[in-house]
Amino acid sequence: MKLEGSCHCGRVRFSCEAYAPVPYMHCYCSICRKTAGGGGFAINLGAHAESLKVEGREHLSVYQAELRDEDGDTRTSSGQRHFCRHCGSALWLYDPTWPELVHPHASAIDTPLPEAPERVHIMLDSKPAWVPVPHGPQDAHFPEYPSESLREWHARHRLLDA
């Protein structure tokens, strides 16, 4: 599925071919909450990195989060969160650990996206008390990351290349 997206101010526009185009994962980690605003729909679309086309690349900035381990040591995440340096819109994540993939933020996509048959709430151990989490028959909950990958979730729901 071809996805087209943009930032809020319109200086950055992008497109890519998504093999996993259904937004289903709501992330409550501090990185997603603070860089993409609130909880939810952060990095849960899968696309082919070689298909990414960007207009306005000169308006992009990249953020790489500092991660703290249990011992208090920090390391820089390999994930590169691309955003518009003018309006701050979170656009996509690229991680050279998986060079064939790019993960657009569903919130930046302008193309109508399919509705998910299930919502997966992750990183609930990081969720602040003020954030409500839906608890319905289509809601799955995980204290951290689920063992099922993005591709596996889409395959289980027969949604690859939806």
UniProtKB/TrEMBL annotation:
<dbReference type="GO" id="GO:0016846">
    <property type="term" value="F:carbon-sulfur lyase activity"/>
</dbReference>
<dbReference type="InterPro" id="IPR011057">
    <property type="entry name" value="Mss4-like_sf"/>
</dbReference>
<dbReference type="Pfam" id="PF04828">
    <property type="entry name" value="GFA"/>
</dbReference>
<dbReference type="InterPro" id="IPR006913">
    <property type="entry name" value="CENP-V/GFA"/>
</dbReference>
<feature type="domain" description="CENP-V/GFA">
    <location>
        <begin position="3"/>
        <end position="125"/>
    </location>
</feature>
<keyword id="KW-0479">Metal-binding</keyword>
<keyword id="KW-0808">Transferase</keyword>
<dbReference type="GO" id="GO:0016740">
    <property type="term" value="F:transferase activity"/>
</dbReference>
<comment type="similarity">
    <text>Belongs to the Gfa family.</text>
</comment>
<keyword id="KW-0862">Zinc</keyword>
<dbReference type="GO" id="GO:0046872">
    <property type="term" value="F:metal ion binding"/>
</dbReference>
<protein>
    <submittedName>
        <fullName>Alanine acetyltransferase</fullName>
    </submittedName>
</protein>
<keyword id="KW-0456">Lyase</keyword>
